[in-house]
Design brief:
The chain has about 280 residues and is of the alpha+beta class. The chain is built from seven helices and 14 strands. About 5% of the residues have low confidence.
Length: about 280
């Protein structure tokens, strides 16, 4: 059953080529509309936007019949407003090139995460000339709207499937024959059996998964615990593979431990995490 669910998710995340072709064809139309709107902003309502040229796998070129001038503010606003409708355009670079020598007259970077935007020289109108506009998109995993719905449905199906499996096979619990008793972590008392933290006389309940995560750290204090080890010991041994779920549980544990400034779970870059106890 796990294999079937995994296969279905792979199929949903990488849809058929026909679907991809539709999205890219739609992108080309959006690019032509960018050229059309830019000419209108410059006062030109009659000259043509020439056919969009695909110059590499993720880069396109918009060309024009006549010379024109443009306001950088207008170009930024037009591309941002139109390309937000492109499900594949999460990050892109725009360069306005001079036709004569392909030098860059103006350029900027737009991302769905606004803090990553790079936009300069707003308000400096560019002189009338022959321009080409190159737009390069950052390659992303192709997940269509239909696939998103399917992935959501599969998540529910996977959850139901796991409950069904649990009725025949008990989920791996914290072993009784191992050292799963009480741990002193700084001023924090960690009772793995009852899934509780006791901090300054206050009791904080832990979920089963939070207990399993903290138990790994408590068994190796002040030592780097590889991310792969955490995932394998806590989830993958049960046939479940997670991604960002681990970060979520680490974050929750940090909040529950924040009462003691001498204990913290820190990130060890490119390796994993470490439970630091001063």
């Amino acid at each position: 059953m796990t294999f079937i669910l995994f296969s279905a998710i792979i199929y949903a995340a990488f849809p058929a080529q026909d679907s991809d072709g539709f999205d890219f064809a739609r992108r080309e139309i959006l690019l032509r509309k960018i050229g059309h709107e830019l000419l209108l902003q410059s006062g030109d309502s009659t000259s043509r936007v020439l056919p969009v040229k695909k110059i590499s796998e993720n880069e396109y070129q918009i060309r024009f019949e006549n010379d024109f001038s443009f306001q950088p503010d207008s170009l930024v606003n037009i591309t941002s407003a139109l390309l937000v409708k492109d499900p594949l355009a999460s990050y892109f670079i725009v360069k306005v090139l001079n036709c004569s020598n392909s030098s860059v007259a103006y350029g900027y970077v737009i991302s769905k995460n606004e803090k990553d935007d790079i936009v300069a020289c707003i308000g400096r109108r560019q002189p009338k000339a022959c321009y080409m506009i190159n737009i390069k998109f950052k390659p992303t995993e192709i997940i269509t709207a239909d696939s998103k719905y399917l992935l959501g449905s599969l998540s529910i199906l996977a959850f139901v499937g796991l409950i069904f499996i649990k009725s025949f096979k008990s989920r791996k619990e914290i072993p009784d024959n191992q050292n799963t008793g009480t741990y002193s972590l700084g001023s924090v008392l960690f009772d793995a059996n009852s899934r509780k933290l006791i901090i300054n006389g206050n009791t904080i309940d832990l979920t089963a998964t939070e207990t399993r995560v903290l138990l790994v750290f408590a068994s190796s204090p002040n030592k780097t615990v590889e991310r792969n080890r955490l995932q394998k010991e806590i989830w993958e041994d049960d046939g479940v593979i997670v991604g960002r779920s681990l970060d979520m549980f680490i974050s929750k544990l940090r909040k529950k431990l924040e009462s003691d400034p001498n204990i913290n779970i820190v990130v060890v870059r490119s390796k994993g995490y470490k439970l630091e106890i001063n």
